[in-house]
Write a structure and sequence with these properties.
Helices cover 76% and strands 6% of the residues. It has helices at residues 2-27, 30-35, 46-63, 68-85, 88-105, 108-124, 128-144, 148-165, 168-184, 188-204, 208-224, 228-245, 248-264, 268-285, 288-304, 308-428, 437-464, 467-471, 474-485, 506-527, 562-573; strands at 492-498, 531-538, 542-549, 577-583, 587-595. The chain has a five-stranded mixed sheet, covered by helices on one side. Strand 1 (492-498), helix 20 and strand 2 (531-538) form a beta-alpha-beta unit. The longest helix has 121 residues, at 308-428. The protein starts with a helix and ends in a 5-residue tail after the last strand. Keywords: ATP-binding, Kinase, Membrane, Nucleotide-binding, Phosphoprotein, Transferase, Transmembrane, Transmembrane helix, Two-component regulatory system. One of its GO terms (cellular component) is membrane. Its EC number is 2.7.13.3. One of its GO terms (molecular function) is phosphorelay sensor kinase activity.
């Protein structure tokens, strides 16, 4: 209990320090306040909305490579609810989803803005995983605009963070992205090494998705080198893996690459076949970018075959889709910039509101903390008195039990033992010769019974409070007890001692002796054993007692007699633990572990 009150005291002091810090934040100038991360007070319904955020995030992630429109729909709900409560982690989850979507869709201007926003917020919230993702997306954006050095630096930063966080999947993806960067710079030897490293990592994780993306990147490198047969092989392998895991975006993207590869090889029929499949999948996925690429390849392939009417139709479709892409890009940019602007305005308003609320709460918090500290001090002094009183009661209880045991032992030895001894002498005074043969048998039986009863009473009086326990301690008392038990030739008892160089607390010695006495008595009466052992071991902080036999075990382990319940009560009074193992024909093993110093 003392530790509990100390924790309360520390908590109260923490509250007092927090209140002081709130005051300091309120005294900063405007520029300094914008650099602080002020957590907003959750609005009503935050718990329910948090559940929705995670549900929407799961759905958006599932649809990310299946249906772009549905993924965008759920991602915006994640962002809207997170902005409602100004929940930073929720915003980062939304930014990460939206960044992936805009990367797949080719909206690199929006991607750059989102990446910068992600990096800023994740650093404020000290969430390096999202910082690394933001760096990776920023590298993708720079790569699209052929700013290779900036792209490489951001990829390398992402690799460093993912390595430190041991995020192997994201690390492998970043290494692949870095390979793409070197590929675009025509540094193919470096790119191949990075691709091999990424593929090995994905292979170790057994990630079909990761293997498929690396194979597609290698295939595209061979397209740049005009190794079309090699690129075709890699694209086919990648498509098979994407189809295996049901990744619709990966399949349509790779089909477009394969269709172009066939076109460069003048395999126009195969190019058209792959292009038509890509066109069908792109419409299901709702990607205007992928649809445009499929239409362009189809138009060129039909034109190369001399089918100009069909080629013209696809060419017109390309122009229409390009206008759609332009309109959608402008619309997305406007929507995203509007969301970011609204988010910043809301952040500023909420931060100012929180600072004002903190100023109002500050005085109350300081007063409450002072009262809490005073209350804890009162409880601590009161607990100290109770602990002292409890120690006195415990000491008196042990002394009372010792006195009562001595009294009962003396009563048994002096009164009942004396009576049985006198009765035995009287029996010696009877002349057996005057008795008949039958009476002599009865006489001998009674004489033996009285003698046995006398020995039992002496043993019982000694075991209740042996002189060895009080004068020489637990070890000597147990040696004496085991020696007396071995006088009965039916069960061979052994006593094994480890440590125990010094005497223990009186209560511990008294209770342990009583426990051993009860357990050995149970073995003699109920076990049917031929061998039994008592092991007493002293560790640094605990005493371990193990009593075992080779008897029949407990017939019904769930049913425990009065003796075993008494033993458990004694163990609990010592703040110890007891384990009972019983198997038929293998005997019973009881292990008791208690602390050397009793916690009051």
């Amino acid at each position: 209990m003392n530790e509990f009150y100390k924790l309360i005291l520390l908590f109260s002091l923490g509250c007092l320090l927090s209140a002081s810090q709130c005051s300091t934040v309120g005294q900063h100038n405007g520029r300094e306040r914008t650099e602080e991360v002020v957590e907003s007070k959750p609005q009503e319904g935050f718990a329910e909305d948090t559940v929705l955020i995670h549900q929407y995030h799961k759905l958006a992630s599932e649809y990310l490579f299946q249906d772009a429109e549905k993924s965008m729909f759920y991602s915006k709900h994640v962002l809207r609810l997170s902005q409602k409560h100004q929940w930073g982690k929720g915003k980062l989850l939304a930014y990460n989803l939206l960044s992936t979507y805009y990367l797949l869709d080719g909206s690199y201007d929006v991607l750059r803005e989102l990446s910068n926003e992600t990096i800023t917020l994740s650093r404020q919230l000290n969430m390096p995983m999202f910082t690394a993702h933001g760096k990776r997306f920023l590298g993708e954006s720079y790569s699209e605009y052929r700013q290779w050095d900036s792209s490489r630096i951001n990829y390398e930063h992402a690799v460093q963070i993912f390595t430190r966080l041991k995020a192997d999947s994201s690390l492998a993806l970043s290494i692949e992205n870095l390979g793409n960067c070197y590929r675009e710079k025509s540094m193919y030897d470096v790119a191949v090494k990075l691709y091999d490293q990424a593929y090995e990592m994905f292979d170790k994780m057994n990630s079909d998705w990761g293997r498929a993306t690396v194979l597609q990147s290698i295939g595209y490198m061979h397209v740049r080198l005009a190794h079309y047969a090699e690129s075709e092989k890699y694209f086919q392998q990648s498509i098979a893996l994407f189809r295996k895991i049901g990744n619709r975006y990966g399949e349509v993207n790779c089909l477009n690459d394969l269709s172009n590869t066939y076109y460069y090889q003048k395999k126009y029929d195969q190019s058209i076949e792959a292009g038509l499949r890509a066109l069908a999948y792109s419409k299901i996925y709702h990607s205007t970018q992928q649809t445009n690429w499929a239409l362009v390849t189809l138009s060129r392939s039909y034109k190369a075959k001399g089918m100009y009417d069909v080629a013209l139709d696809y060419s017109q479709a390309v122009n229409f889709v390009r206008r759609m892409i332009h309109d959608e890009t402008i619309k997305r940019q406007y929507t995203m910039y509007q969301l970011m602007h609204d988010n910043k305005l809301m952040d500023n308003e909420i931060q100012q509101k929180i600072i004002n609320e903190q100023r109002i709460v500050q005085r109350f918090l300081i007063g409450f903390s002072c009262l809490a500290i005073l209350f804890v001090i009162f409880l601590w002094f009161n607990n100290k008195k109770l602990r002292a009183k409890n120690a006195e009661i415990q000491s008196a209880l042990i002394e009372g039990q010792t006195i009562e045991r001595k009294r009962v032992a003396a009563e048994l030895h002096d009164h009942l033992g004396g009576t049985l001894a006198s009765l035995n002498w009287y029996l010696y005074g009877i002349d057996k010769k005057v008795l008949s043969e039958e009476e002599q048998k009865i006489y001998d039986s009674v004489h033996q019974m009285v003698g046995a009863a006398y020995k039992e009473v002496r043993s019982l009086s000694h075991n209740l409070m042996p002189a060895e326990l009080e004068e020489h301690g637990l070890t000597m008392a147990l040696h004496r007890l085991i020696s007396k038990l071995n006088e009965n030739k039916n069960i061979a008892f052994t006593f094994n001692l480890t440590g125990m160089n010094n005497r223990l607390n009186n209560k511990i010695e008294f209770e342990l002796y009583s426990i051993v006495l009860e357990l050995t008595n149970n073995i003699i009466k109920h076990s049917g054993a031929t061998q039994a052992s008592v092991d007493l071991t002293e560790n640094v902080k605990t005493i371990v007692l193990v009593v075992s036999d080779n008897g029949t075990g407990m017939i019904e382990p769930n049913r425990q007699g009065v003796g075993l319940r008494n033993i458990k009560s004694r163990v609990e009074s010592l703040h110890g633990k007891i384990q009972i193992q019983s198997e038929a024909q293998h005997g019973i093993r009881i292990e008791i572990e208690i602390p050397k110093v009793i916690i009051r």
